[in-house]
Amino acid sequence: MSEKHEEQAFEKTDQTDESTEAVEQDITETVAPEAPVEATEEDETTDALTETKKSLEAAEEKYLRLYAEFENYKKRTRAELDTERTYRAQSVLRDILPAIDNIERALAQKGESEEFKSLHKGVEMVYESLLSSLKDNGLEVIEALYQPFDPNLHQAVMQEHDESKDSGIVLDELQKGYKLKERVLRPSMVKVNE
């Protein structure tokens, strides 16, 4: 071959090599940027999913706390209503206690005439009926006479010394005490042994 042909062949080879390099560079440039983009999209999807999960967990926790708080509120309200129902008669019963004391004082009076006995019997019937109705509503008489003194149930207004009784025993009840279920409406006024 002549030198001219060899130079042309060599130039064609150089051009082919250059074309191949250019194509390879184009491919690399085209492919290389897309690979990181796909990885970034995947990372963004993972990040978005993680954030969504965290948001869902936070919302669920908030819901559970709110639900627990509401359940506690319902229990408190129910308990308050039960207490209110149990002790709703408290103020009325407190107002009636002086009337009961007056009826007891009237019953303590003695008389011999038939009119007095008839009136006494009528007052006694009213008293028994009233006490029965009040007991149905939860009123209880506090037992005091010859019981150990209890400051939660008794109010000591006098002391006396009786050697036949133990110290701290109630010797006399000056005014009856009453409870409504477990709540003291009025303590018993008592005389206590020293």
From TrEMBL:
SUPFAM superfamilies in the cross-refs: Coiled-coil domain of nucleotide exchange factor GrpE (SSF58014), Head domain of nucleotide exchange factor GrpE (SSF51064)
Chain positions covered by the region annotation Disordered: 1-52
Sequence ranges of Acidic residues compositional bias: 16-27
GO terms of molecular function: adenyl-nucleotide exchange factor activity; protein homodimerization activity; protein-folding chaperone binding; unfolded protein binding
Primary localization class, coarse: cytoplasm
Comp. bias intervals (Low complexity): 28-38
CDD domains listed in its UniProt record: GrpE
Keywords in alphabetical order: Chaperone, Cytoplasm, Stress response
Classification via PROSITE patterns: GRPE (PS01071)
Compartment list: Cytoplasm
UniProt entry tagged with the keyword Cytoplasm: yes
Composition skew (Basic and acidic residues), residue ranges: 1-15
GO-annotated cellular components: cytoplasm
GO biological process, one term: protein folding
Subunit comment: Homodimer.
Similarity comment: Belongs to the GrpE family.
HAMAP family, per the entry: GrpE (MF_01151)
Role summary: Participates actively in the response to hyperosmotic and heat shock by preventing the aggregation of stress-denatured proteins, in association with DnaK and GrpE. It is the nucleotide exchange factor for DnaK and may function as a thermosensor. Unfolded proteins bind initially to DnaJ; upon interaction with the DnaJ-bound protein, DnaK hydrolyzes its bound ATP, resulting in the formation of a stable complex. GrpE releases ADP from DnaK; ATP binding to DnaK triggers the release of the substrate protein, thus completing the reaction cycle.
Protein's UniProt name: Protein GrpE
Species of the source: Macrococcoides goetzii
Lineage of source species: Bacteria, Bacillati, Bacillota, Bacilli, Bacillales
